[in-house]
């Protein structure tokens, strides 16, 4: 484990943590909780962490086994990680060029601290295919040929960093009262209400540029 690798994985985890889906979920819990926001939000974050860690563990062990048993597997793993990231951004660019309907997000009637864990698992798992920093981080860990225990600790740290914005939002929301609640309502209106998302050339251009850069990296490794 080098400081360079640790800094790279930390940066990727920080980028991955800025996830509107999970932030909107915490906002909904603070706005619509039936009296147990801390327990419900904590359970949701636990489900999110468990998903990030367990899926990462499975991907890491599978990729490590392939890299050690198949000649040239590590090269294809690198290409696959960056290629998948490029594909995710390309799809996002195409979607940005057309009107799309966004479904409303709300707390279900069965939402409790127990079921919040399940919701955290489902929402995080559904978003992982779009989490290109996640796959790049796992590729970096496999390429570094770390001891399995060290890699697991890094994956656990990745999961913690992924959850930090949710925990910060929860703490600020509970401590600042109405002022923060108003901001959370605006966040929910921006990302969690039913709406027609209009095309955006600027957003599509940013996604496309990112896809091209990642595709070039995939082709060069």
Q: What do these coordinates show?
A:
The protein is an all-alpha fold. It has one domain (3-19, 42-105, 117-170, 195-220). Helices cover 79% and strands 3% of the residues. The chain is built from 9 helices and 2 strands. It has a two-stranded antiparallel sheet. Helix 3 (37-69) packs antiparallel against helix 7 (148-176). The longest helix is centred in the N-terminal third of the chain and has 33 residues, at 37-69. It is globular, with a radius of gyration of 19 Å. The two termini are 21 Å apart. The mean pLDDT is 82.
Q: In order across it, which strands form the biggest sheet?
A: 1-2
Main pleated sheet: 2 strands, antiparallel
- Output the structural class: mainly alpha
Mean pLDDT: 82
Give a count of the beta strands, DSSP E runs of length 2 or more. Answer: 2
Instruction: Encode the helix/strand succession as letters.
Output: HHHHEHHHHEH
What is the overall shape?
A: globular
């Amino acid at each position: 484990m080098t400081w360079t690798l640790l800094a790279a994985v930390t940066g990727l985890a920080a980028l991955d943590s800025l996830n509107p889906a999970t932030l909107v979920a915490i906002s909904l819990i603070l706005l619509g909780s039936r009296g147990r926001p801390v327990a419900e939000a904590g359970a949701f974050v636990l489900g999110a962490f468990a998903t990030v860690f367990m899926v990462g563990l499975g991907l890491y062990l599978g990729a490590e086994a392939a890299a050690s048993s198949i000649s040239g597997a590590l090269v294809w793993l690198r290409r696959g990680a960056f290629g998948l990231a490029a594909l995710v951004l390309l799809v996002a660019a195409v979607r940005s060029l057309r009107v799309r309907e966004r479904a409303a997000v709300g707390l279900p009637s069965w939402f409790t601290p127990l079921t919040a864990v399940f919701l955290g698992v489902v929402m995080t798992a559904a978003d992982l295919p779009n989490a290109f920093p996640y796959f790049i981080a796992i590729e970096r860990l496999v390429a570094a040929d770390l001891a399995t225990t060290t890699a697991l600790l890094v994956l656990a740290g990745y999961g913690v960093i992924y959850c930090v914005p949710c925990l910060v939002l929860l703490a600020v929301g509970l401590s600042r009262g109405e002022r923060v609640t108003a901001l959370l309502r605006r966040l929910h209106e921006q990302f969690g209400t039913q709406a027609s998302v209009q095309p955006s050339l600027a957003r599509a251009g940013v996604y496309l540029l990112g896809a091209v850069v990642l595709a070039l990296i995939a082709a060069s490794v």
